[in-house]
Design brief:
Strand content: under 5%
Radius of gyration: 19 Å
Mean pLDDT: 93
Number of strands: 0
Order of helices and strands: HHHHHH
Number of helices: 6
């Protein structure tokens, strides 16, 4: 889960590089390099999977940033950390602004979110 603008920017940069690698991927060259068509196909599928995963993470973060948050329902305690992060993002609060509002250091909010509270 992307939790801040820095991670969002890093993820976008990684996605750009992965898309370029996927576009440049030559199955025939990969077969020669790996010596196995199954490995070459697996390599391409791994790139495709990473592109899909990062694209979904970016879309989720972007949708959280523009969400109109009212009451949030959490079905289990396991969902609570993700919902707290999503609510902060939807309220357009940076980790720094949340830390200031709570009287904490930004680094502490970063740790809480990295460790899923």
């Amino acid at each position: 889960m992307i939790t801040n603008e820095r991670q969002y920017n890093v993820t976008n940069a990684r996605l750009t590089r992965l898309k370029a690698a996927l576009e440049a991927f030559d199955l025939n060259e990969a077969v020669v390099r790996t010596g196995d068509s199954i490995l070459a196909i697996a390599e391409r599928e791994a790139l495709e999977s990473q592109v899909t995963d990062l694209t979904e993470e970016i879309q989720t973060y972007e949708s959280m940033k523009v969400a109109d948050v009212g009451a949030v329902r959490v079905r289990s305690l396991q969902e609570l950390p993700s919902m707290l992060i999503a609510a902060r993002i939807a309220r357009r609060l940076s980790q720094r602004h949340l830390a200031e509002a709570l009287g904490l250091k930004e680094r502490q909010i970063q740790r809480y979110e990295a460790e899923k509270y």
